[in-house]
Design a protein that fits this description.
Structural class: alpha/beta
CATH topology of the domain at 59-206: Rossmann fold
Strand order of the largest sheet: 3-6-9-1-10
Helix content: 40-55%
CATH class of the domain at 59-206: Alpha Beta
Distance between the termini: 10 Å
Shape: globular
CATH superfamily of the domain at 59-206: P-loop containing nucleotide triphosphate hydrolases
Radius of gyration: 20 Å
Largest sheet: 5 strands, parallel
Length: 325
């Protein structure tokens, strides 16, 4: 479906927008980050854009693939592009929840307990090899990812704003890893796969990294205030009733044709990603094309079929069979 087929006029869309959205400014933010990351990552333009739509839509990203394709490097490059705090958590089997969230330590001088925040208290958190840690440690992320806060010893501590988790996991050595619980999987707006690069891209990549790796020279290109502005503008993008109804019909299809379908949280993430996709396309309103462009990456990982089919097949069926009205 094209923009012109949408039943609502552009005048009505603009009238329903809560405030003037500076699409050009947001586009500049996205283009700056994408160009910066592409000095390190070759041949992954679409994946970088998908990470950016997740960041603009206030979501978290799970990068899953075989070892050595650049999952961690991509996450580092994106995080380094922002002039904010960046922390990395290397998940291992012996990692404890307190190693992630932080601990209260007794100060002998003040005779009081003081909170020492863990690495999760950062604007961008890289959870490397997240499936290496046991479920108890993985659960330390649940509250932070959903509510942007962490409770330690009964005391709640707010995350810095903005707050985003980019996690990686590999698809091999299943006997040495733990499956992520669905409660955690559902908190990731998107699940992305990088795949092996094309031959020309790999040759280009080798020319860049055989000597000094470009990640060592990467510098921030936008400020935290730029990112906050971009997120606020994205949140103001209009999502009208026909688009909300279409997204709901898609997720309802997954619930009716799978053992476990997409949750309401997944529906929210789909529309937020659609808002970000609209911004990237220079629009102040979401059309069904935006929803369709984001559906596979936002919905598939939340679906369990209980059979041979996977979630991506169910999403493909939904996109083919659910009408746009």
């Amino acid at each position: 479906m094209t923009d012109t087929e949408h039943p609502t006029t552009e005048a009505n869309r603009r009238a329903s927008t809560p405030q003037e959205i500076d699409i050009a400014a947001v586009s500049d933010v996205v283009e700056s980050v994408v160009a910066n990351v592409e000095t390190v990552m070759v041949g992954h333009h679409d994946a970088i854009e998908h990470i950016m739509t997740a960041l603009l839509g206030r979501g978290h990203v799970l990068l899953e693939d075989v070892p050595g394709v650049g999952k961690t490097m991509l996450a580092r490059a994106v995080a380094t592009s922002f002039d904010g705090t960046f922390k990395r958590v290397q998940f291992t089997p012996d990692l404890l929840p307190s190693d992630v969230t932080g601990v209260n330590v007794f100060n002998q001088q003040t005779r009081e307990f003081e909170f020492r925040p863990g690495p999760i208290f950062a604007n961008v958190v890289l959870g490397d090899e997240i499936n290496r840690a046991p479920p108890k440690t993985q659960s330390a992320l649940l509250e932070a990812m959903e509510e942007e806060q962490a409770t330690v010893d009964g005391e709640t501590h707010e995350m810095p704003a903005p707050f985003t988790v980019i996690a990686t996991q590999n698809t091999v050595e299943g006997d040495r890893a733990y499956d992520l619980p669905m409660a955690e999987v559902d908190r990731f707006m998107k699940k992305l796969h990088l795949g092996y690069p094309e031959e020309d891209d790999e040759v280009d990549m080798l020319g860049r990294v055989v000597g000094r790796h470009p990640i060592e020279d990467l510098q921030p290109v936008i400020s935290l205030e730029d990112l906050r502005m971009a997120r606020a503008a994205t949140a103001d993008v209009t999502v009208e009733t026909p688009v909300r109804e279409y997204a709901t019909r898609l997720v309802t299809y997954t619930r009716e044709h799978a053992q476990l379908g997409v949750s309401p949280r997944g529906n929210i993430d789909l529309l937020r990603a659609g808002q970000a996709r609209a911004v990237l396309d220079g629009r102040e309103y979401v059309v069904p094309d935006d929803v369709q462009a984001e559906a596979q990456h936002v919905l598939a990982h939340r679906i369990r079929t209980g059979g041979e089919r996977d979630g991506s097949e169910v999403v493909s069926e939904a996109l083919d069979r659910v009408p746009v009205e």
